[in-house]
Amino acid sequence: VQNVPATTTVDIIAAYDDVVLRRPVTVNGAPATVSTLTLNVNTVTGGQGGVGHVTLAAPAPAGHVLVNLSGSHPALNVPPNVMVSAGSTIGLFSWTANAVEATTAATITASYGASAASANVTVNPSVAKNFWVTGLALSPTSVLGGSSWTATVTLNAPAPSGAPVTSKTPVSAV
pLDDT, tens digit, for every residue of 71-119? Predict the structure, then answer.
C-alpha cells in the first residue's frame, strides 16, 4: 500500500456474477513532510536541464513516500512525482527546459500533504551558433619575447549581445 499524507479510507470491492462485496480499509497516513528542494543548476538554456533533490524532514516510513512535483511554466519539463524510499530522506529526479524566446523565470515545487518546498529556475534563450571566423589580424606581426601584441578576430556577422570574449596569454613560441 502506498503511503498517504493523511489517514484515508478506501473501499475494497470483490465481484463475481451478480454478487458484489465491499469492505472499507483504513490506510493510516504517515507524518512525512517535505523539508527542502534543491537543484544542481538554477540557470539553464533551453534544451538543458538538471537534477532535483527532494529532502524529507524525517526518513520515509514503510511503503515509501510519493512526493508530487510541478513546474510553474511550460518551459519546464518536470516529472509528476518522485519516490522517497522507505528509510531514506532523499528523492532524486531529473528535469529539462524547453527552448524559450526570452529569459524566463520559473519555479519547481515539491509537495506532500500540507508541506511544500520550491526552487527557482531561470531559462535563457539559446544563442544561435551560425557564426564563423572570417579573419585574423595580428599587430605587430613580429615581436620580441615578453612583448605584447594584439589579435583582432573578425566574424561573418555581429556577435550577439553578451557574447563571451576570450583571450589567452601568454603565448609560447613553438
Answer: 999 999 999 999 999 889 999 999 999 999 899 999 999 999 899 999 9
Q: Are 77 and 49 spatial neighbours (Cβ–Cβ below 8 Å)?
A: yes
Q: Is residue 99 a contact partner of residue 47, using CB atoms and an 8 Å limit?
A: yes
What pTM did the predictor assign? 0.61
User: If you write DSSP's letter for every residue of 80-111 in order, what string do you get?
Assistant: SEEEE-TT-SEEEEEEEE---SS-EEEEEEEE
End-to-end CA distance of the chain: 70
Q: Are 123 and 48 in contact (CB under 8 A)?
A: no
State the DSSP string of 35-47: EEEEES-SEEETT
